Amino acid sequence: MARKLQVSHLGKTFGELRALQDINLAVERGEFIALVGPSGCGKTTFLRIVAGLEPASSGEVTLDGRAVRGPGGDRGFVFQSDNLLPWRTVFANAIIGREVAGHVGAAERRRTMELLKLVGLEGFEHYHPRQLSGGMRQRVNLARALAIDPQILLMDEPFSSLDAQTREIMQTELMRIWEDGRKTVLFVTHQIDEAVFLADRVLVFARRPGRLRESVVIELPRPRSLAIKRTAEFVRYVDHIWRLIEDDVRASVIEEKV
To answer: What is the rounded CA–CA span in Å between residue 199 and residue 195?
Structure first.
């Protein structure tokens, strides 16, 4: 596989606070990468820097060999909340990125309809967000990010607000969509089992200042069904990653209570 994303000696400070320290990472084209770690370890900050929404304090991020200096249509961002515009229909929300870019013709409309079908929303294109469940709104969110045809998809805990059953269904749906197009994905989550189920590699971040503690290669066969979560190999991966972050998680919880 060809290298898609290169992160070199990345650091980020907010005044006196050091959020990220010396992050080095290479991501191959089509890889699905999950990021886990304790609260406050800089996972979302890292994702925002790759998205161009936040400047790095030191180091560099390159995408296809070009330095990231700001947001761009080569990156699609799926936020934790769906942020859909309530007065726009499902279709109008999904195509908004193309509208902002000034490229809305027959081909873009057709592609947006195909994406709504891909995420399981065929027949809902004229609905409004208030008429949808949380899982359906997050499907619109995903279609909106895919509609700009990004080179890399950045996802910041997109399923965290969903109930446990809906979350598992959305995991399998995301896998199906990813298998269909093989976009390069960076996926932030607090759920270790979600990371292991989805990813080719899980990046384990250490407590602040955020550092890359370990890159865990997930050698589970694809395509994956939810049944794989009950296998001994899956449980071993989850246990290994939990042991890497357990002390940091305990420390961050204690810090929050003080």
So the answer is: 6
